Amino acid sequence: xxxxxxxxxxxxxxxxxxxxxxxxxxxxxxxxxxxxxxxxxxxxxxxxxxxxxxxxxxxxxxxxxxxxxxxxxxxxxxxxxxxxxxxxxxxxxxxxxxxxxxxxxxxxxxxxxxxxxxxxxxxxxxxxxxxxxxx
Length: 135
What we know:
The chain is mainly α and about 140 residues long. It has 5 helices and no strands. The protein has a domain at about 15-55.
């Protein structure tokens, strides 16, 4: 190429080649087009936060097992739904009964959760719950 001569259409191949030639020949026009597109889109479409507020989309369907269980817990204990939004229920089950390894796993989990008083409001450990000793 001679000095001062820019890329030509003969060098450009395909759509991206033509875009490259356009941007190299008229960079300020390309920047102006991008600014114009951004302005038109911002005026045409509402912000994402506004759309999310107007049309909230549930994360889970209403018939998801965790939501059904949460509703049942709320009804059984006569609580509002907001009190049970974040319920973790751990159930270890085995048709043949729990063995020592299962109980060790359960105790380790409960012992790891017990000290977390910031995130855990209540921990009911049914394995360690024992009836009161009789006199």
